[in-house]
Structure formats: structure tokens, C-alpha cells
Amino acid sequence: xxxxxxxxxxxxxxxxxxxxxxxxxxxxxxxxxxxxxxxxxxxxxxxxxxxxxxxxxxxxxxxxxxxxxxxxxxxxxxxxxxxxxxxxxxxxxxxxxxxxxxxxxxxxxxxxxxxxxxxxxxxxxxxxxxxxxxxxxxxxxxxxxxxxxxxxxxxxxxxxxxxxxxxxxxxxxxxxxxxxxxxxxxxxxxxxxxxxxxxxxxxxxxxxxxxxxxxxxxxxxxxxxxxxxxxxxxxxxxxxxxxxxxxxxxxxxxxxxxxxxxxxxxxxxxxxxxxxxxxxxxxxxxxxxxxxxxxxxxxxxxxxxxxxxxxxxxxxxxxxxxxxxxxxxxxxxxxxxxxxxxxxxxxxxxxxxxxxxxxxxxxxxxxxxxxxxxxxxxxxxxxxxxxxxxxxxxxxxxxxxxxxxxxxxxxxxxxxxxxxxxxxxxxxxxxxxxxxxxxxxxxxxxxxxxxxxxxxxxxxxxxxxxxxxxxxxxxxxxxxxxxxxxxxxxxxxxx
Length: 495
What we know:
Blueprint (H helix, E strand, L loop, with lengths): L1 H16 L3 H4 L6 H16 L2 H7 L4 H33 L2 H11 L9 H20 L35 H12 L7 E8 L16 H9 L5 E7 L4 H11 L6 E7 L2 H7 L5 E4 L4 H13 L8 H13 L4 H11 L4 H11 L10 H10 L3 H9 L7 E4 H10 L15 H14 L4 E5 L6 E5 L2 H11 L29 E3 L1
Parallel strand pairs: 1-3, 1-4, 2-3
Antiparallel strand pairs: 5-7, 5-8, 6-7
Helix pairs in contact: 1-3, 1-4, 1-5, 1-17, 3-7, 5-7, 10-11, 12-13, 12-14, 13-15, 14-16, 16-20, 18-19
């Protein structure tokens, strides 16, 4: 998220530096020139941020350069924001309290006490930025404005998926249903495990059963025939599974437990040698069918013949993973041939054909988001996997962080909440988010969640910009710039 953060920082700095506050402050001689040069340097740096964010994944030099730049930009923002805050405080302070406020403002410990101190800090920050701007031993391409980033198409999204829209899983569906309906087992309760095979997926396994689960299971399952779905299991602790199993074995004959996982060790911990179904990646023909659906929509394929070979080459890089295929297909929808070629030759050329990294494929779509959308997406990394977000509350949190702003005539008649709603729609359309719950009458999305792989991507792109802190463990580390902590409990729910 470095580029998204820095892009917002540079915009904020330019806005503050261009305000009329500094025209009212009697800065020391030369300070106004320093402020102008600072603005020029920030504008110059801003043009290469889009390219720097992409290249930092493969270049430690670029990553370190961005880290140094971020620290100085934060310092600049802090200084300019302090000046703006002091100006606002003076405006809203009643006259009978102003004398006390003035005494505080001119107290020697106040860094803004005298204009020359502000001028000195501006000069120091400007020099640091000039040095960082010149200290580049690598080449970055210039993008002149935020508008160069592709904007995804919006559409109405609901939580219902018609059977005919599911591509490439018909035979899998038949086999799984057959296993669930199989009554040959002598046990009252039997387990069917579905293992999804993915490449380049790593996970921190630390899920624990909820404290109220045992009592709930006894009440709901005891003596009844049931189908229990345990989706996306990652706990490899056989002892915990046996503890859970003891609560599940009292169902009547024919009861089934359906387990889905991406970790073979989970199946081994469960201990079942039969009833295991390996859900493989999509074959090439089904991958192409899914890609066509996403990239071409309802348009006649014959109109897009020139794009077919480009598309097939891109599909091979997706490794048969439906989420990657959908995300890239959505990205390419309604794009011109030259844009398809650019993504194939410049974005996908870095991905190893023999061992495609799924996160790297998904990041290509992330790279083409607007900076504001990158912020909102990466912010979701602060929440645990499988967290279900309440849309209105999440939009308010994005607004509180300054991720949602009205830019120019495009949104001049929209409220920030409406813009945030559009952000959610964009992220849903691009498969960065998934619908969890929609209004049954209007179809309006009310709750959404994030696929595990997208959560992995959010964590990766967020980097040190955000951390989840366990209060029972040591500190968060010095590389994260601290802010107020967020209590996530009122804004969604854990599944």
C-alpha cells in the first residue's frame, strides 16, 4: 500500500502547503521560496509513485527508497497540519480565552511559537525531500496524474449465484453430493473432506474453537440427523479435532460433516482415510470459459478475435485458480487491445510459467486500482480472516481515515457516503470483496467479506502501514507509525 499511502500524503501536503494559512504567517526570509520548492519536489516525486509501488516487490532498493520518502512526507504532513490546526484553534477560541491560548502558543516549548521555527522546519524537510528525490539508483516511469490508473466498471452485485453461472465444477459437484449421500458407512457420523489444491499459498494457522461452541453443538446436534459444514479449516492440532469430534458423534445414522481446507495436514489431523475429495484447479478449457465470461461479458466473442490469443496466454499464468481468473478477467473487461498487450507483456512477464504465484497474479489487478481504492482494500487487512463487514460502518471508518474524498467535478454532487458506496461496488466487481448479505427487496449489499487469498494480498500490500496487535504479546514493532487503536467489534462480526 506504500504508493497509495504516499499518493494520499502528497495530495494532503500539496493541499496544506497551497492554503492561505501561510500567507498570513510572517515567515522568515526565504521560507516562502522553500515552501514553493517543497511543493515542486512533492509534485515531481508524485509522478513516479505509481511505478515505484509496482517495482518495490522485486527491488529492495525501491522499497528502502519508499520507506525513507514516507518518513519525510509524514514529517511534512505533521508540520503543515499542526500549522493548520493552530490556525483553526485561533478561529474557534472565544475572545475571553484567547489571551491564555496566545500565552500557550508563544511558550518556548511550542514548536510553532515563532514563525522562524516553522520556516526552519520547512527548510529542513525540503532539503531532505530534494536529497531523496535525487538519490535514485534505479529508473522509474512517470505517470502524470492519478487518472492514469484504470477505474473498474461498476455493476449491481448480489449474493445469489445461479447454478448455470458456475463454470468447471459440475463433475466435482456430482462426486461431492455422491459422497454426502453415501450411506454405506457403519458410523453414525462420517466425514467428507474437500481439499483445494493451490500453489504459492502460505498461512499462519492459529484458529481456536469458540468457548460457547460445545454447549451449542450439544443442543443442536444431539440425536438428530445433520449436515455440518466446517469451511476453510486450518487447525492442524489433532487433539483439538478429537475434542471437537467427541461433540459431533451423537448424531443419528447418516449424519455428515463436510470439511473444506487448503491444507493437507488438516485432513491428516482429522484421521479419515476415505471420503477425501481433492478439488483440483480448473483445466485449461474451463479456465478459458470462465475468463471469457469475465472479460467479454455478453458481447459477441467474434468481435474480440484479436484478443483471444492474448487472453489464452494470460489465462495460463492464472494457474487454473478461479479467483485469479475472475479478477484478471474483470480487469480486462472493456479494455482495448493495446491495454491487453501491455498487461500481458509488462505485468505477466514477471510471473514464472512453471510456478505461477497466485498472490502475484492478484496483485496485477490491485496495481490497476485507484489509490483511494487501494487504501480501502488494504485497510481490510486490519481485520481477521472470515470477518464479515457491515458496509455502512466500514464506509464510515474509511471516511474517518481520509480514504474517501471528493475529487473535482466527477463527484461534486455526491456525498462522501455515496462515493464510499461506489468504492464498495468497485471492489466487489473486481472480486476484491465478496457479498455476504444483501437486502432481499432492493438487492443492496449490506454485509461483505474478503476471500482468504485476497486477505493475504491485503496483508502483503499493507506492509508496515498497519498491524494487528495482540495485547497479550509484546509491542507492535518500531516500523509501524502509531495512531489510535481501533476497536473492530461494533463494525462487523466474526464468522
